[in-house]
Amino acid sequence: MLTSFSVTSASRLLIAVVIVWLLIIFVITGPLIGWSHSREDGMANGDSNGNGEMILARLSRAMNELTALKAQNEELRSLLQNYLPIDLSPIESSMSHSSTSDAKKSQLPSQEYELTRRRIETNVHELWHFLRSKTNSSIMQTVNEMKHNLLYDLGIIENRDKHWRESELKSLSELVQNKIKELQNPSSCGSAQKLVCQLNKGCGFGCQIHHLAYCMIFSMATKRTLIMNAHNWRYAHSKSKSSEAKGWNSVFLPLSETCLDESGSTRVSWSSAPDLDSYQVIDLPIIDSLRSRPNYLPLSIPEELSSSLIQLHGSPIVWFIGQIVSYLMRPSPEMTDYINQQKDRFKFKTPIVGVHVRRTDKIGTEAAFHPLSEYMKFVADYYDRLDLFNERKQNNKKVERLVYLATDDSSLWAKEVKEFEDKGYVFIGDSQISQTASIGRRYSIDSLRNIILDVWLLSESDFLVCTFSSQVCRLAYELMQTRTHGNSQFAKTDKSSAFYSLDDIYYFGGQTDHNQIAVLSHTPHNKQEINLKIGDIIGIAGNHWNGFSKGLNRNTKENGLYPGFKTIEKIESAHFKLFEPN
C-alpha cells in the first residue's frame, strides 16, 4: 500500500518548524533589547522624552507581528498534523484519554471529504476512458503515465486514514456478520418466524448464489430465519434423501446450527396474504416472479448502516451483497482444504490480477466474444501502474506480472495464453478446471468445487478483469469487497474500483432502478446525447467506457448518452428490521 510520511520524518519537520519559529522570535525581539538599552542610556543622560513614543510604537508593532506569527504557527501545526498518522501523533499521545478521543474525532475525514476523494479517482478514470477512445497509442503512453501518477498521489491522500478506514469497515462487517448469525440461530426453531427459499432456480452457480442472497435480504429486512431447501439443487445432485449433504453441505457450511426445519403452525406464499406478519412460515418465490416488490430489494442498503457505509465505501450495495454472500459461501472443512491445496499448487500470491473469461453458452446470447488480448490490455495497465508506484518510491524493481486465469473455455490455454507468456506474464490456474466447467460436466461435484475455487481466488486478487454480464464475475467482485486486509503492499481497503468490466456495469439480477443524479448541466453536441440539468434523475443503462454513459433522464424522458463525470450515484436505503436497536 502507498505510504505516508513516517513518524520520524514528521517529528523532524516539527522540530524544524519550532526552530524556525524561535529564530523569528529572536529576530523580532532582538531590536527590542537594543531599544531597551538605548532608553536606559537616554534616561541616564536626561533624554527620556525623545525616543519614548518611538519605542512604544515599535513595541506595539512587534506585539502585533508576534500575534500574527502565533496564528501562522497554529496553521503550520494543523497542516503538519495532517501528515502524522492519527494513531501515532506525538501531540495527541501527550493528551489525556478523553482529550485524545476528541482530537481524533476532530481530525477524522468527513463524509464529504471521503466522497470527494473517491469522486476524483472516478473522474480520473472517466477522463482516461475518454482520452483512450480519442487518442492514438503513442500519445496514450504519456496519458497512461499521467493517470498512474495521479492515482499514486491520490493513494497517498487515501493512505492517511487507512487504519481508521480498515478499522471502521471491519467493525461494520463484524456487526453484519453477527446479526446474520444471530438471526440464523434462534433459541427456539419451533417458534421462530421463518422464510423458506427453494434452491432450485434454473440457472448457473453464480445465479443460484445470488438467488439465495436475495432470499437472505428478505430475511434480514423482515427479521425471519432463512430456511434453505436444497434437496433439488442441481449441483452434485443425487436422488437419495441425503442429496443435500452431498450437494450444498459438501462444499459449504449449513446456514444455521440450530434451525434447519421449515415446518411451522401457519404457512403462506409471499404474495397471497395481506398480513404476512401473522404467519410463522413464508415461502418466497424467485425474484423474477415477485409481484409485491418491497423497497428493500437491491440496490437498496439498510438505512441503519447507510451513513457509515456511504462514507467508508465507494459502492455500498456491492459491499452489502458481499457481506451476505460471504456468509452464505462459508466453505466446509473439506472445501477449505481443497482451496488451500490448490493455492499451494498454483503458488498463489499477491499482487495478482484475476482474469475471468466466460464463453461457451453465454456467447451470442448474453455476452459478446472477447479475445484474451482485450482483457490483457487492462492487466498490462494495472501492472504499469504498480511499476510507476514503485518508481515514485525510488524502487526500480519491476513487479512480477502474475495472472490467475479462470475460464470455461479450455482451448484458451493452448491458443491464446502463450502470446502473453512470451511477453513476461505468468499465468496460474488449470486447463483441467476449465474442462469441468464445460456444459456437459457443469453440475458434477468436481465442477462445483472448481467453480467455487475460481470465485474464491478471483475475489482474493488485487484487481479483477472480466465481464459483468457474468454472474460469476459479479460474485467474485462482491466477495472481493470483504477482503479488506490484502497481503500486497498495493492492496486497497476499499476495492470498489479494483476492476475493469469489458461490458456491463455492476447490477443485481431483478434489482430496482439504478439511478444517478446530475451535478452538472449538459447541452447535447449531437443527436445521440441528452440534456441534463443539475438535480435531474437519470436511470443509467450502461457505461460505454469512453467517457459517456447511456440512460434515461427521468425528468425529461430523453434517452441517450451523457458524460459520466456530470453525475453521481443515487444511493437508496430502506428499513431493515434486523438492525433495529434491541
TrEMBL record:
<keyword id="KW-0472">Membrane</keyword>
<dbReference type="InterPro" id="IPR036028">
    <property type="entry name" value="SH3-like_dom_sf"/>
</dbReference>
<keyword id="KW-0808">Transferase</keyword>
<feature type="transmembrane region" description="Helical">
    <location>
        <begin position="12"/>
        <end position="35"/>
    </location>
</feature>
<dbReference type="Pfam" id="PF19745">
    <property type="entry name" value="FUT8_N_cat"/>
</dbReference>
<protein>
    <recommendedName>
        <fullName>GT23 domain-containing protein</fullName>
    </recommendedName>
</protein>
<keyword id="KW-0812">Transmembrane</keyword>
<comment type="similarity">
    <text>Belongs to the glycosyltransferase 23 family.</text>
</comment>
<dbReference type="GO" id="GO:0006487">
    <property type="term" value="P:protein N-linked glycosylation"/>
</dbReference>
<keyword id="KW-0328">Glycosyltransferase</keyword>
<dbReference type="GO" id="GO:0046921">
    <property type="term" value="F:alpha-(1-&gt;6)-fucosyltransferase activity"/>
</dbReference>
<dbReference type="InterPro" id="IPR035653">
    <property type="entry name" value="Fut8_SH3"/>
</dbReference>
<dbReference type="InterPro" id="IPR045573">
    <property type="entry name" value="Fut8_N_cat"/>
</dbReference>
<dbReference type="InterPro" id="IPR027350">
    <property type="entry name" value="GT23_dom"/>
</dbReference>
<feature type="domain" description="GT23">
    <location>
        <begin position="191"/>
        <end position="502"/>
    </location>
</feature>
<feature type="region of interest" description="Important for donor substrate binding">
    <location>
        <begin position="358"/>
        <end position="359"/>
    </location>
</feature>
<keyword id="KW-1133">Transmembrane helix</keyword>
